[in-house]
Amino acid sequence: MNIKRVMIVGTMVVVISFGNSVLNGSVTSASPLARVSTADHRAAEKDALLAALNQSSDEELYEELFEGKSLHDIAAAQGGDIDEVIELQTRQLSQQLDERLRNGSISAKQYQAHQEELKEIVKQSVLTSFG
Question: 57 with 34: CB under 8 angstroms?
Fold first, then answer.
């Protein structure tokens, strides 16, 4: 797997997962991925990520990531459930692919290709440390 791709996807996953609170309510990303549809849904997904990682706050998670730890490292140290993190992030990215397909920003062929590799990319991204 291309490490550059893993790092890009890992960064996207982190921004998607808890970007709303870090960015004070506005999701800003260089990624062409569609935004999650509602603020309530984003809050529930962010809370699910924090729960899966056994983190008490966005700030605590942000600090761990800033120190260069992978999501796997964070979950392992805190007694979190990395499989739940993978499933949550795969589901979030899959929903965004669904939205992009509905909006016509990707073709059915592109959609299928992305869906086929999505879970493996997420698995690799949670294992990647940025330190």
Answer: no
Q: E strands within the chain?
A: none
Ordered per-residue pLDDT tens for the chain, 131 residues: 455 555 555 665 655 554 444 443 434 344 444 444 455 555 666 689 999 999 999 999 889 989 999 999 999 999 999 999 999 999 999 999 999 999 999 999 999 999 999 999 999 999 887 76
Rounded to whole angstroms, the Cα distance separating 30 from 45 reads: 21
Rounded to whole angstroms, how far apart are CA atoms 13 and 52? 15
Q: What are the residue ranges spanned by the domains of the chain?
A: 3-22+36-127
- CB of 117 closer than 8 Å to CB of 90: no
Whole-prediction pTM? 0.64
Written as one letter, the residue type at 39 is: A
Q: Report whether 27 contacts 36 (CB < 8 A).
A: yes
| Token output for 65 | 């990531």
Residues contacting residue 99 through CB under 8 Å, at least 6 positions apart: 34, 37
Q: Are 10 and 125 contacting, i.e. CB atoms less than 8 angstroms apart?
A: yes
